[in-house]
Amino acid sequence: MENGTIALGLMAILGLLMIAAAISDIRSRTISNELNAAMALLAIPFWIASGLALWPDVPLQLGAAFAVFLVFAGLFAIGAMGGGDVKMIGAVMLWIPLPLFMPTLMVMAIGGGILSAAMLIHMKLRPSDKPVEVPYGVAIAAAGLWALHQQYLNQFQVIG
């Protein structure tokens, strides 16, 4: 099997894992460590199959994903985001090429904003004493799927 086929297969697995995480987040407001670990660990064979150079590309990819993780860990520390969401962002960003980091984060922010607005409307229609918990895994998954599409399936290569 050639590397391109392996990379596409791994991307399909990532897509399914992101969808599973989004569904889990909607249902229970949790994303399991197992799902996040699978997404993170599968990045390694993906890098190999997609030809990412061991030096300097792999350390750059790890460093950039870790930097994004740290920013969102700060949001977790102040109670603005769940731990599963933060781990999912870190895992997904391991797969995203550097030129797509900022666009992916923008898509994630827009999706999260729409999701937050929908949750607020829902809370106004059905008042509850519980605080609003936004299933941000949905926005993370949507942004991750968008980024995979942009880099590998978009024949026009508008970004990157």
What does this structure look like?
The chain is mainly α and 160 residues long. It has one domain (3-153). Helix content is 72%, strand content 0%. It contains seven helices and no strands. Helix 1 (3-28) packs antiparallel against helix 7 (137-153). The longest helix has 26 residues, at 3-28.
List keywords for this structure.
elongated, mainly alpha, 0% strand, single chain, 160 residues
Q: What can be said about this structure in brief?
A:
This protein has 160 residues and is mainly α. The chain has helices at 3-28, 33-41, 43-49, 57-77, 83-93, 101-125, 137-153.
Low-pLDDT runs: none
Number of strands: 0
| Domain count | 1
Helix-strand category: mainly alpha
- Number of DSSP helical runs: 7
Distance between the termini: 27 Å
What is the string of SSEs from the N terminus onward? HHHHHHH
Output the radius of gyration. 16 Å
Proportion in helices: over 70%
Mean pLDDT: 93
As a percent range, the share of strand residues is: under 5%
Tell me, what's the shape?
A: elongated
How does the major sheet shape up?
none
What order do the helices and strands come in, and which of them pair?
Blueprint: H1 3-28, H2 33-41, H3 43-49, H4 57-77, H5 83-93, H6 101-125, H7 137-153
